[in-house]
Automatic annotation (TrEMBL):
<dbReference type="InterPro" id="IPR006059">
    <property type="entry name" value="SBP"/>
</dbReference>
<dbReference type="Pfam" id="PF01547">
    <property type="entry name" value="SBP_bac_1"/>
</dbReference>
<protein>
    <submittedName>
        <fullName>Carbohydrate ABC transporter substrate-binding protein, CUT1 family</fullName>
    </submittedName>
</protein>
<dbReference type="InterPro" id="IPR050490">
    <property type="entry name" value="Bact_solute-bd_prot1"/>
</dbReference>
Amino acid sequence: MVRYTPGSTPQLGRRAMLRIMLAGAGVAATGGLVACGGGSGSGGDSKVVTFGNNLSDQVPKDAITAAIKAFEGSSGGLSVTINTKQHEQYQEQINNYLQGKPDDVLAWFAGYRMRFFADQGLTGDLTDLWGKIGGNYSDALKQASTGSDGKQYFVPFTQYPWGMFYRKSLWAERGYTAPKNLDELVALATKMKADGLIPIAFAQKQGWPGMGTFDQLNFRINGYQFHVDLLAGKEDWQDKRVKDVFDTWKRLLPFHQENALGREWQEAAQSLQQKKSGMYLLGAFVGQQFPDAEKEDLDFFPFPEINPQHGTDTVEAPIDGYMMAKKPSNPDGAAKLVEYLASPEPQVAYLKADPTAVATNKNADTSGYNSLQKKAAEVIKNAKHITQFLDRDTDPGFASEAATNGLIEFIKDPNNIDSVLKGMADQAKNIFK
């Protein structure tokens, strides 16, 4: 799936990305997506299913189109009308789209973003379908597909993990090994610095990369439940547990690449590719900055343990997939299409165009995976909990203002933690009423 958050649209400026975050999770946008099939129970052709697609770049668009054509060939006479919108426009307009006449099946994101619309009754209940397909997914993926009422409203398609990425050849040359806990991470970073490397590549010009660092530290220190509750406005940003996160980050900041506020993630990734940096905490899309001949040299490890109570049981692995309209024009056809998208074959076919992601169906054929995909699939499979990324796991207004600005202020002055957290707490109280 095209990812509008980290890695998907590097050509967008920060303002555009924040506008997408606001609109994509429910803030009304002008205009609206136009459905091809007149969904929402309009009595459409029983042989036609309409499909809302946000994969507008040519390669992934061709890949999902091929998968849909394969469905048509095995569906017993159904045809699919694909309604493709430029992915930025799609996210900006989805609120009005869902309140109008959406397509029968449509692309979206798991977790908070899915629950936002499910809570408003704007998407179809897929609980019965999950009774058929549930065995193909991990408990963590089911959790990310479940609404506040305990029902399922989403089918996962692909995902990609966040972790500490590095070049295998550089580590072999220097004799580095993956740290198992925070103290070992600090010791490794100290050694890298002594060896003349930037220990941890870092960039924050686009506003979102530091969110990934916060996420890793928060769920490693305080656990999955506190993390999701904090982002949902159920915990206080001035809580000592949050201050512990920033105190830990302050300990690590001297090992981060300097002048991060003036650097984009692509530049930081290039420093990793050029062997100037030893590690980079990012999503698997970091591989986009590596030539094909060097992609097999890229590896990663999950962020190491900080609190033994939580270990490394949580993995940040944003999930892209599909929802069904509340009242599809072709309910039977829509159900068949969603069930098909939950199967291994279309997911594997799609990944031939996007080898930085992995299939979500645990029965997918992974024989064609590169080494990074194999590692990613294993790490995700073993996760007890999966998070989506801060700007997908919280209110978009909080992400774009309080979180973005708070993290920037902290990076500017890590001695100002109390003031930063007070500002974030005050804004959270206004947003999560």
